[in-house]
């Protein structure tokens, strides 16, 4: 709804809520303290797509609808840091993950801190789609900006979504293609070795952790 709340998420401490509102043509990121009822707009000039609280409720990771950047920012609007950024020469192709072009995004269907942030709060999951439309899963250390590619997909029809950390060293996600005939729930090691285990293979029509 125009100027209405679009998506809201409790902080892990349950003391506050972050939520997006649509204003004009951009999506703002906001915060409300449940004890005092005080609300604050954290981001008003960036078009926020999805976001996720850090495990300790102090920070939020978010991406942009343009698919150009993934950032971390404090709940109070300070300390913004770009942790993943599409190189400038490729920015002409920097569009949302629904298009087969270069983009970086928090995986579709992934919103909670347990799904995006590692349990120790050091790493954030994201997907990157290359110029030829191939999507893979990565993680980034938001403090050091170290990045690791976790999957080695070469099929542009494959879509990766609904990621979740099973432990600091293991991640599970949904891998599917538009035909829906070869959907898989997959487990991959987070050390960058690319070791993948298929947990379930079926036509999956509805999925959530």
Please provide a brief summary of the model:
With 209 residues, the protein is mostly beta strands. 2% of the residues lie in helices and 47% in strands. A hairpin with a 7-residue loop joins strand 14 and strand 15.
Walk me through the structure.
This protein has one helix spanning 113-116; strands at 5-10, 16-23, 26-33, 39-43, 48-53, 59-64, 69-74, 81-85, 103-105, 123-129, 135-141, 147-149, 159-167, 170-176, 184-189, 196-201. 2% of the residues lie in helices and 47% in strands. The model is unreliable at 1-5 (pLDDT under 50). It has 209 residues and is mainly β. The radius of gyration is 17 Å and the shape is globular. 35% of the residues are buried. It starts with a strand and ends in an 8-residue tail after the last strand.
Keyword list:
mainly beta; four-stranded antiparallel sheet; disordered N terminus; 2% helix; 47% strand; globular; 209 residues
Residue stretches low in confidence (pLDDT < 50, at least 5 long) are 1-5
Q: How many distinct beta strands?
A: 16
Structural class: mainly beta
Order of helices and strands: EEEEEEEEEHEEEEEEE
| Helix proportion range | under 10%
Strand adjacency order, main sheet: 1-2-3-4
Major sheet: size, sense and barrel closure? 4 strands, antiparallel
- Cα gyration radius (Å): 17 Å
Count of helical stretches: 1
What is the 3D shape?
globular
Round the mean pLDDT to the nearest integer and report it: 86
What percentage of amino acids are in beta strands? over 45%
Instruction: Tell me the distance between the termini.
Output: 27 Å
